[in-house]
Amino acid sequence: MMRYLPHTSDDIAAMLQKVGVDNVDALFTSIPESCRRDAPLDLPAPLSEWELNAHMSELAADMAVAPQYKVFLGAGSYDHYIPEAIKHLLMRSEVFTAYTPYQPEISQGTLQTIYEYQTLITRLLGMEVANASMYDGASGLAEALLMAIRVTRRKKVAVSTAIHPLYRRVVATYLAPTGYEVVEIPYKADGRSDLTALGNLEEFAGVALQSPNFFGCLEDLKAADELIHADKKTMMVVCFSEPLAYGLYKSPGSFNADIACGEGQSLGIPRAFGGPGLGVFAAKKKYVRSMPGRLIGQSVDKDGKRGFVLTLATREQHIRRESATSNICSNQGLCATSATMYMAILGGTGFRELAALNHDKAEYLKAELQAAGLKIAFDTPTFNEFVVQFPAGSQATYQQLLDNNFVAGLPLEPYYPELADHYLYCVTETSSKADMDALVKEIKS
Q: For domain 70-82+347-444, is the CATH number 3.40.190.170?
């Protein structure tokens, strides 16, 4: 941990003398007085270091987190075991950076890592090309829809309401000032998107689905491919928040997705109270020059030795100016590195076995909750997550569980008003059978 080392009064005086002013306030004379604060900040008295540590511990104790609480929350952020090897390897100087270098060819370790990341992502998603990552899953989806608009030159996109609500908010924010129209696709009684509501496909640049979707349900991507690609121009965008699902289920590329994008946090990245995340983005190769972000390629130097290069970086700071495909200023290099190590350490067999374990544990809790008299809201195959319907007035039950150190799913009513008394449960390999049995017992009581 880096300690806070304050400047002494003598230090401050020496620095002020060096720059030629009498006091700190003189450093801000260029700011008009009308823009300056004329009263002191309303802050509490300073604390000693040990008092501050105790205060922070008290604040942390107010949060319902593991291991004190048994947490059955996912909703776009998933608790998975992270191999210890990753924590060690991430600290190596060859790869310890969160940024794509501006003089990239001298940073062969970073470039090789990103190249391997792109290779593993294309294999996982069944796509032909992947970029060097985006900020997070939400920005990846927004950029995918903007890419579809660039490719097709149409000004309307369709987004399923079964996509993560926060992803949809980001899409709305991105597209609000552009004049492009966003049409929402409703979900059906089985938790899947109702594509029959699309109408005339010739109006749409792209149609976005999430699979597994926010309810944990697998979308019928085969039917979606047939319907969306009935119009040769409309692009099919498949997003995700849990890429581990593709260790068990078919990838977006297997269903002819034009763009696959989503959140890669579950690939060896801690939840960290909401960030940072990893924006995964892949597409068909024919659209590569319309992709946002950067791509790393492999080449040879003048002596014929293998080397890695920044192959494509069509953003405003490089070559495209106002015609840039995006203004993404940094890929999540360190998170992408962690994801690369995670996928490499697990390998194809380990990835599939872990996905199967997650699926089976979730199915166990689903069956136990059903046996306890609760209703599973959607009769559709799921991965990791599923929606449970409680009897009316379930808020008291939810609070009782919380009081007994169970975070029993995510209440869906704030995001879907029609789903009052519905809760989104998540189970990963970190959820023990004992914890699940204890939850069911508590619900029965």
A: no
pLDDT tens digits along 215-238: 999 999 999 999 999 999 999 999
Class of the domain covering 84-343 = alpha beta
Looking from the CA of 365 toward its CB, the CA atoms found within 13 Å total: 32
Round to whole Å and give the CA distance between 293 and 327.
8
Q: What percent of the chain has pLDDT over 70?
A: 92
Cα separations (Å) of 398 from 65, 376, 419, 423? 16, 16, 15, 9
* Sequence-ordered alpha helix ranges (H) in 153-244: 165-175, 221-228
According to the model, what pLDDT value does residue 222 have? 97
Unique residue bearing structure tokens 């998603």 = 125
User: Which residue is it, tokens 């799913």?
Assistant: 409
Which residue type is seen at 133?
S
Residue 263: in which H helix or E strand, if any? strand 259-263
Q: Give the pLDDT confidence score for residue 301 in this predicted structure.
A: 86
Cα→Cα distances 67→70, 200, 417, 431, 435, Å: 7, 51, 31, 11, 11
| pLDDT single digits (tens) 181-221 | 999 999 999 999 999 988 888 999 999 999 999 999 999 99
**What is the predicted pLDDT for the residue at 1?**
46
Distance (Å, whole) CA 427 – CA 79: 9
H/E segment holding residue 436 = helix 433-444
How far apart, in whole angstroms, are the C-alpha atoms of residue 261 and residue 205?
16
Delimit the CATH 3.40.640.10 region(s) of the chain.
84-343
Q: Which residues pair with 100 in a beta bridge?
A: none
Q: In the 8-state DSSP scheme, what is residue 122?
A: H
pTM of the model: 0.87
Residue 293's pLDDT is 83
Q: Centre a 10 Å sphere on the Cβ of residue 27 and count the other Cβ atoms it contains.
A: 11
List helix spans (H) across 182-277: 221-228
Which residues in the chain are classed under CATH 3.90.1150.10? Answer: 70-82+347-444
Determine the Cα–Cα distance for residues 399 and 405; give it in Å rounded to an integer.
10
d(CA 21, CA 251) in angstroms, rounded, equals 63
List the Cα angle 410/416/419 in 5-degree steps: 75
Candidates 209, 75, 191; CA nearest to 141 is 209
Q: Is the pLDDT of residue 283 over 50?
A: yes
Residue 407 bridge partners (DSSP): 71
Six-digit token string for 161: 């309401």
- Per-residue pLDDT tens for 328-375? 656 688 899 999 999 999 999 999 999 999 999 999 999 999 999 999
Please say whether the beta carbons of 345 and 86 come within 8 A: yes
